[in-house]
Amino acid sequence: MPSPQSLSEPDRRLVAAWAADCAARVLPLFEAEAPTDGRPRDAIDRARAFARGDLDTAGEIRRRFIAGRAAHTVSSPAAVAAARAAGQASGVAHMGAHALGAAAYAAKAAALGDPDHPTAVSEEIGWQLENMDLHTRAALRQLPLLGENSAGPLGPGLLASGILGSTIRHIQSAIEKSAPSLGRVS
Predict the structure, then answer these.
(1) Fewer CB within 10 Å: C terminus or N terminus of the chain?
(2) In the chain, where are the structural domains located?
(3) What would the 3-class secondary structure string for the chain be?
(4) Mean pLDDT score of the chain, rounded to an integer?
């Protein structure tokens, strides 16, 4: 039985486009430090291609870690977080919950990239929520709340703590409030 964090393939395709958009917003933070490393950009492009139905799940599962490895080639925390946002976006083909990871890392990258801007995280989350259509919201709403299921990225791990965890909790809370008539799938 698949994890409740997986989502159906059609729902993963929906949330992949949004995750790619979240990661693309902070990609310049990575590219400023590593302009010749195209792995994060390629991961975002692949997430978009997967969303369109141009790439299959199996192929993307094999390639999902490539962008994350780019995080080891940069030194600024903002660039690292941007690479991880792209890596999480590419991981959506494997498991839908990675979309929330992409959003969380993007918010973290935005904050780290502009440390003198105390509202960077909340502004990034605001953009993410405003740029999430109703179908994407409905798909993401099917995911278990952060920490409620250990069979995937929303379990007790890196995404559950600090700014990543608070970002995901904020997004999930906003999604929950925006569609109270939709039942949560467990």
Answers:
(1) N
(2) 9-178
(3) CCCCCCCCHHHHHHHHHHHHHHHHHHHHHHHHHCCCCCHHHHHHHHHHHHHHCCCCHHHHHHHCCHHHHHHHHCCCHHHHHHHHHHHHHHHHHCCCCHHHHHHHHHHHHHHHHCCCCCCHHHHHHHHHHHCCCHHHHHHHHCCCCCCCCCCCCCCCCHHHCHHHHHHHHHHHHHHHHHCCCCCCCC
(4) 92
